[in-house]
Design goal:
Structural class: alpha/beta
Largest sheet: 7 strands, mixed
Strand content: 15-25%
Shape: globular
Number of strands: 25
Length: 491
Amino acid sequence: MLSAILDTPPGAVVAAPSLLAGKWVGDGPAAERVGPFTRAVVSRARVAGPADVRLAAEYAKAGARTVARLAPATRATILDRAAALAAARRDEFARLIALELGKPVKDGRGELDRVADTFHVCAAEARQIGGGLLPVAGWARGIGNTALTYRAPAGVALAITPFNAPANLLAHKLGASFAAGNSTLVKAPPQAPAVSAALVALLLEAGAPEESVQLLHGGGDVGAALCAAPEVAVVSFTGSAETGAAVARAAGAKRLVLELGGNAATIVCEDADLAEAAKVCARTGYTNSGQSCISVQRVYVARESFDTFVDLLTAEVAALTVGDPLDPGTDVGSMVDEQAAARVLGWATAAADGGARITVGGTRDGATLAPTVVAGPAADADVVVKEVFGALVAVIPYESFDAVLETCNTSRFGLQAGLFTRDLGRILTAWRELEVGGLVVNGSSNFRLDHVPFGGVKDSGFGRESPHCMVEDYTVIKTLLIRGQSIWGEN
């Protein structure tokens, strides 16, 4: 199935079947995905119905024991094979991502590099799953007893993935769940059904048993039904805060890992290398057309450096190549659809009407928004207070370091922030005071290492998405108490 998806001839519509009860199913009602750059149908997904949800949930529950019985070393070997396959099929995946989402092919290749790394890290985590001997004899009632723990698979995990990094974010969820010994239900994003199907097929081709994963396509109704399924033990969701709240309501009393929206701030202090900061913000503010929860959105610059930084950033952004995502030289492709591009352009125009300056960009062609810089927007402008999730960066002056930290914290989101400074005191203060899950120093907010804990606070969700943390979320601690036997003596 992996070759059938990835090797579809250019110009042909890619089929994205469901995977139910160990079988790829392509017949039935279908939804078509129109490529945002090509403006033509690029893939067709088989949409799940209520009966499919029931079948998948019941099969996953029945098959969970098969996956759990695989030795951790076996799971790790399969994940390492998946990593090798991801590296080998890097170009084909990148092309498919470009067609379905308008992401430049060079960024798609980078995403597949991360997929390979993620699977390797998941393999390493599988090898380390274990337990421990508890020090029960340190308390009087524990004398003469022994207590042990180990991490057992949760059973059935549900992975609901977003469109913006469909391969790597699915690799995180699916790879960690398999490493933990679970069966996994995957609800793919409607915007990237074929990419999702290809990644699921890749894991199976690497040797994962058919019981390890089910794949369903559809909208919010399918996701809600899966969340409510009693067979599901843990739900991992990446997406907007509003949809995350709906996921929590539908799931009820289940373990949840929610990686939600962001409104990322990057602070540029007066001692920073302004040229380097501008270069980094330009490069990371428009990657994937800014469609990342940690994309550079708000850049706060010390007042005395503001004008210089705006000029430097404007020049860097103007030099970005915008165009066909299949062209290896393209830096910025299309946004996910025309509605998204029109929304961001509308916010930029409204900010300009409120007194801001659009120093570059401010135009669109269909779903392609020219990379846009908005300088000096009002504090209550949409480009400042909402999640832009598009090819726009707002630059705002600040008067004092303490004040800008307070300003950053006014956001309802708290995922990740960036800081450019050489002052260790400021670094430690920002790390302590900023209400975010992570701080990147001498880099923008848009940087992530896949093996490092990642997640937010406030409306940016809870839980941490790195394989190590996710394996903990996808397992349960089981305790063994042996009365009357102890290695500590005094039995």
